[in-house]
């Protein structure tokens, strides 16, 4: 794990992951604020400062997993402060994955410029742009999975008729165990891999996988 390439990978991967997680959580907080909940703002979470969003264990897991897995602190939301809570929860939840897709697009443009030779940049910077595309697409698709506590579970709950909410709440009791099991066995790589490859090719022009 801590081989000769560890420092090189850390210098490229860690900043891209931390920045992407920070943007993801910032947009959750920003949309919550726009819908009337100031909880995240009052706690100093409405910021692009990565230190405000770092989770100690999530950051440790990022390094221990070889920069394949990690997380930031979830943004605190008080539903009683939200205007139209059902609609607000939908947009708050989808804001994180959408922000990562936007970042992936920006990193893709930068990669195409650098990789195409329009601007000569060091190879490490070019790799940073490419990794930025991959990690943001991965974050967006992973968080859209409808398993609690991922964003996709909130999105699903708010687009389905309200009569299904009781069933979904009951399912949420077991969802974290399903989520952890799939992470341990690498199931998400198998499930999401083909979709990640499609988006990476779309944004960078490179065929991967």
Structure description:
It is a single chain. With 209 residues, the protein is mostly helical. It has one domain (6-204). Helix content is 67%, strand content 0%. It contains nine helices and no strands. Helix 1 packs across helix 5 (123-143), helix 4 runs antiparallel to helix 5 (123-143) and helix 4 packs across helix 6. It is globular and about 55 Å long. The mean pLDDT is 89.
Write the layout of secondary structure elements.
Layout: H1 6-34, H2 39-42, H3 56-64, H4 85-115, H5 123-143, H6 151-159, H7 165-172, H8 175-184, H9 187-204
Defining key terms:
9 helices, mainly alpha, globular, 67% helix, 0% strand, 209 residues
Biggest β-sheet strands, sense, barrel = none
Please trace the helix and strand order, writing H or E for each element.
HHHHHHHHH
Average of pLDDT: 89
**Number of strand segments:** 0
> Domains counted in the coordinates: how many?
1
Helix percentage: 55-70%
User: Would you tell me the structural class of the helices and strands?
Assistant: mainly alpha
Query: Span between N and C termini?
Result: 22 Å
Strand content: under 5%
What is this entry, summarized?
This protein has 9 helices and no strands. By secondary structure, the chain is mainly alpha-helical. The chain has one domain (6-204).
């Amino acid at each position: 794990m801590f081989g000769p390439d560890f420092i090189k990978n850390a210098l490229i991967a860690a900043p891209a992951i931390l920045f992407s997680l920070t943007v993801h959580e910032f947009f959750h907080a920003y949309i919550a604020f726009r819908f009337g909940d100031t909880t995240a703002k009052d706690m100093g979470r409405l910021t692009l400062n990565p230190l405000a969003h770092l989770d100690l264990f999530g950051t440790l897991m990022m390094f221990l997993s070889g920069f394949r897995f990690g997380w930031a602190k979830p943004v605190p939301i008080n539903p009683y402060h939200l205007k139209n809570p059902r609609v607000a929860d939908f947009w708050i939840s989808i804001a994180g994955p959408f922000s990562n897709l936007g970042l992936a697009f920006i990193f893709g443009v930068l990669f195409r410029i650098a990789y195409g030779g329009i601007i000569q940049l060091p190879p490490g910077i070019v790799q940073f742009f490419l990794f930025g595309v991959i990690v943001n697409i991965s974050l967006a698709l992973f968080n859209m999975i409808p398993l609690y506590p991922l964003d996709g579970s909130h999105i699903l709950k708010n687009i389905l008729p309200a009569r299904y909410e009781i069933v979904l709440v009951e399912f949420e009791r077991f969802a974290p165990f399903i989520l952890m099991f799939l992470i341990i066995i690498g199931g998400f790589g198998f499930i999401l891999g083909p979709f990640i490859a499609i988006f990476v090719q779309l944004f960078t022009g490179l065929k991967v996988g």
